Amino acid sequence: MIENSILEMNQGNNGHGKVEIAPEVIEVIAGIAASEVEGVSQMRGNFATGVVERLGKKNHGKGVKVELSENGIKVDVYCLMKFGISIPVVAQKIQDNIRQALLNMTALEAEEVNIHVVGIQFENQKHEVEIEEEV
Questions:
Q1: CATH 3.30.70.1350 holds for 7-134
Q2: Which residues, in sequence order, are CB contacts of 135 under 8 Å at separation 6+?
Q3: Most confident segment among 6-15, 36-45, 51-60, 76-85
Q4: Rounded to the nearest 5°, which phi and psi values hold at 39?
Q5: pTM of the entire predicted model
Q6: Are 98 and 27 contacting, i.e. CB atoms less than 8 angstroms apart?
């Protein structure tokens, strides 16, 4: 693991200063890129992110863990998939979308993008949740 938790960009010696990117920024970029893929029902979070979202704040880094090492950036994505989709196809699209978003926005390449499918979302479950919230 790298001692400092900030990623320093190597853009040559242009005399303007340096650019540093926090791992939280990479989490947000990866979270948005993953949730944009058709077939992803939702991202998995923990208890704290659930409480924060109920208070009205959207957490875009939810379900994403970024690890910085000597080998590069390792991204782990935890998500729920919609029922009836091909999990390997959607997982590949998530990986491609995250890699492309990171490359476009930060000029960084991820060493690994691991997709963890933690559940399947059925249509009738979604309607039941909506009905419970309305009551």
A1: yes
A2: none
A3: 76-85
A4: 115, -20
A5: 0.74
A6: no
> From CA 62, how far away is CA 108, in angstroms rounded?
21
Q: What are the domain boundaries of the chain? A: 7-134
* Length of the chain (residues): 135
Q: Which two tokens stand for residue 10?
A: 């190597």
Q: How many CB atoms lie within 10 A of CB 78?
A: 19
* Greatest Cα pair distance in the chain: 61
3-state secondary structure of 69: strand
User: Tens digits of per-residue pLDDT, 68-112?
Assistant: 888 889 999 999 999 999 999 999 999 999 999 999 999 899 999
